[in-house]
Structures
1.
Amino acid sequence: MTFRAPAPPRADRIRAIAAAHAAERGPLLVILHAVQAEFGFLDPDVIPVLADELNLSVAEVHGVVSFYRDFRTTPPGRSTLRICRAEACQAVGADALVEHAKQRLGVGFGETTADGAVTLDEVFCLGNCALGPSIQVDGKLQGRVSPDRLDALLGDLR
């Protein structure tokens, strides 16, 4: 993976975020979440900046970013659809719902539709087990989601 230096104003903001959390114990995860919250994703070019600020290797920072599913290295869509893949939801049709969503959107997990409208993600529990299959659309929890109901929700997003 190759990195380019981020534009100075953005690099300065990333350094400021890192400085604001540097005194915390094990600040890397907190800083990564804060940078992603501000910019929407973790552009790979921020990795060397954070490595330098935290006196870590680029490989260490990249390893953390690539390990955790919650970190995105590409811009998300305008909306995010997360489908629960935990056992309780699988038992009531989540696998079929996943296949329906992938076909309907034309993308896989971690991908965004060509029009930039929807990013499809998987999650392994939304805490809504009694009302599965469950999804989350832009942070709003939905239970007992059928393919038809999913289509209606997706129609509202586009």
Note: The mean pLDDT is 93.
2.
Amino acid sequence: MTPQLPQISVVVPVFNEQDNVPPLVHEIVAALRGVVAFEIVYVDDRSRDNTLAVLRDLKAQVPELRVLHHTDQSGQSTAIRTGVKAARGAWVATLDGDGQNDPADIPKLIAERAKGSADVKLFAGWRVNRQDSGSKRWASKWANAIRARMLRDATPDTGCGIKLFERAAFLDLPYFDHMHRYLPALMQRAGWKTVSVPVNHRARTAGVSKYNNLNRALVGIRDLRGVAWLIVRSKRTAVEEV
């Protein structure tokens, strides 16, 4: 018998998250098993702790789990793209590996997709009650305001890790480092609609953040200018088969 292909692939990029892996995997299973055919694709970005060993042990317990491993550390956007390319589902849900996104929100995004129009290719999580430090919330507020003014993507929160999007539409987007922070603008540039969905947000309970406000800001300025350039230079046309 041919195994059933997943309808949803849950892609989780991780770097040094050994203590967050088991609870998050079990939460994903609890949220989706019996609800939709799914797979979990973890992408280890060459962690220096026991993340990969923990994932290997979990594979024996969770048949839906697949594990990919970067031989060179490549960053979150590359890890997400690695997972999406390997995904077997037509739609992909992403989660940050730190446990701050709630897998119980994935069915909510799936429900939004079911009632949405066919030209909506991205359902983006919107953290309405962020559980980060005050400095992170302040930095995110200003970054979102600047991004919205430059890109006009009508998205209140592009930094939220939980998203649901069509795999084919994602793989058709231009790829660059940090692209995961600009998915709404890039999807809209490609001619698709996007929807923001309020989701839960949780405090980190283990491990440490891999970013700080300064490095986010320095990279973000350069990326914003690049994405704005892509939008200005884009050209789309309808195609008819004769």
Note: The radius of gyration is 18 Å.
